[in-house]
Specification:
This protein has 533 residues and is mainly beta. It has four helices and 32 strands. The longest helix has 6 residues.
Length: 533
């Protein structure tokens, strides 16, 4: 047994424990000529909010009713609602909004800003106080709704562990970061077939880091899982049913869950229903909406065949998202029904070449940003590298410092339109050093926090608007900066207390009704178990 999972239906927390070894699935030989690291056992233990069977954090505008006349389903907007729209606001042109209507319709709409549209499944800001959704069928009707936007998905997918597979191996971002000496300002695509740099990956699409932690970068591990039916014997979820001999697909052809992203959503293999909301529409490989740029990204060396001029696609920045190019959104997921979630869910899919399903395609598992904020395990869940003192002297390892807040952010009450500042200060003990600050904001009563772009000082100042009452702010600190991860403070990163913003005269608190118990889909209502016998 290498991986187990437990779910707390009171807190919606999924806890995963593993030893970090890819057993029972085989893997390559390490060290090898391209990778000097050995695979070692890791006591991986991480918990995160489970969101299977949901579409993310639910929201409504001030007036949560809609009226449809003809093909147009209109939603009234207040002044505070209108402030959510714009190029730098919570909802931006090009975003996808998921609406769940009281008449049973679930549908994604592409927001075009103030640009008129009459295209079905698009929406636009028709006036300052009305959002028009274009439906595919005309009727006259009214009702209520819940919607889901992308505001928590603005952050880039972090380097390192972004999820975990069912056999306990962590899933990594495809970016190699600064590894392999890429051109300045760029990052290697760690598992691109035509890359001039080889990171020593094995046939399962994995390799170990210097910590000894083995991880997957792409979907090649599915081939290893199928070999000798290893996963079928390891877990009843995979062994109890199959599609034409493929234990990683349900009898109707839809892929099974192969793991979970650390924002709580399931990760499926490459096959889904042809029509996202119709389980009778047949199955096929679900396609990515990323493609290689025709023209090099600014500052990139010309496409070529060398390290200095690497081939197109070998750098992360060579890829761009094109709305509607494939089935999946910028996060490499979609809203859909699946065999496990027949009322609907948001889910990621492994992406492959539809003409060669054994060939993974970018971004492989998760896109350049995630649907919700990723709950990243410290040091990707790997144990720190034992540096010792070197030289074979047998001395004790250096003492690692501790972070401590000397000033915590405080609750604040201001009038609408006024600026408000939250501050935090910290120190390192026993000897101070450089500390990094990052401010986070929660718009849903503290259910989820997202990093605020550019808010990296000891203070964060913003203009309070009426709809922001109930917003929560906290600061995350790391340190000391400029050292290896295993040399940072023992409690780095460290989060501050939460400060609550109250906007005088706004007439109520923030949206606190974002609970997963509004859905009938439950993790423990399905047959998948990581520790099946």
């Amino acid at each position: 047994m290498t991986a187990t999972a437990s779910y707390n239906d009171a807190t919606y927390v999924l806890t995963v424990s593993a030893d970090g070894l890819p057993s029972p699935v085989s893997y390559g030989t390490f060290p090898n000529q391209f990778n000097p690291n050995s695979v070692t056992q890791q006591d991986f233990d991480h918990d995160f909010l489970y969101r299977g069977g949901t579409f993310g954090i639910s929201r409504t505008f001030d007036d949560n009713t809609w009226t449809q006349v003809g093909f147009i389903r209109s939603i009234s907007l207040s002044l505070s609602d209108n402030a959510l729209f714009g190029n730098n606001s919570s909802i931006r042109p090009g975003d996808n909004l998921m609406f769940v209507f009281s008449d049973g319709i679930k549908r994604k709409f592409l927001y075009t800003g103030t640009t008129f549209t009459s295209v079905a499944n698009q929406c636009w800001l028709a006036t300052d106080n009305r959002l028009d959704l274009i439906m595919s069928v005309q009727e006259t009707s009214t009702g209520t709704y819940t919607y889901y936007d992308q505001r928590n998905g603005r952050l880039e997918t972090p380097l390192g562990a972004i999820g975990i597979a069912a056999n306990g191996v962590v899933l990594f971002n495809p970016s190699a970061g600064n590894g392999g000496n890429p051109p300045l300002g760029f990052s290697w695509n760690a598992h691109y077939d035509n890359s001039p740099v080889n990171f020593g990956g094995d046939q399962c699409g994995g390799h170990p880091e210097q910590t000894g932690q083995y991880h997957y970068h792409d979907g090649h591990f599915l081939d290893c899982w199928r070999e000798n039916g290893a996963m079928g014997g390891y877990n009843d979820y995979y062994g109890s049913s199959q599609y034409n001999g493929d234990i990683l697909r349900h009898p109707d052809g839809h892929s099974k869950i192969i793991g979970f992203a650390f924002d709580g959503f399931p990760v499926y293999g490459p096959f889904g229903y042809d029509a996202a909301w119709d389980n009778l529409s047949g199955t096929r490989p679900i396609t990515s909406s990323y493609e290689v740029r025709d023209i090099e990204a600014p500052g990139r060396p010309e496409y070529g065949n060398t390290n200095q001029n690497p081939p197109a696609g070998s750098l992360m920045e060579d890829w761009q998202y094109v709305e509607g190019l494939g089935d999946l959104d910028v996060h490499n997921g979609r809203f859909c029904i699946t065999p496990e979630y027949q009322n609907g869910t948001y889910a990621y899919f492994l992406t492959v070449d539809p003409d060669d399903v054994d060939h993974p395609t970018f971004p492989y598992m998760i896109g350049t940003s995630t649907r919700e904020s990723i709950d990243v395990p410290i040091n990707s869940g790997a144990k720190p590298v034992d540096t010792g003192t070197g030289g074979g002297g047998g001395g004790e390892a250096p003492v690692r410092p501790t972070l401590q807040f000397t000033l915590q952010p405080q609750n604040a009450t201001v009038n609408a339109g006024q600026s408000v500042t939250f501050s935090a200060q910290a120190q390192l003990l026993p000897e101070n050093g450089p500390i990094g600050y990052q401010w986070y904001r929660s718009t849903d009563g503290g259910f989820a926090f997202a990093a605020i772009t550019g808010a990296t000082d000891i203070s964060y100042t913003t203009t309070a608007l009426s709809y922001m009452t109930g917003y929560r702010y906290r600061c995350r600190i790391i340190g000391p900066l400029g050292v290896a991860l295993n040399e940072r403070a023992t409690n780095s990163p460290l989060d501050s207390n939460v400060a609550v913003l109250t906007v005088a005269g706004s007439g109520g608190g923030g949206n606190l009704a974002n609970r997963f118990d509004s859905t009938l889909s439950r993790y423990d209502s399905t047959s998948q178990r990581y520790d099946g016998t």
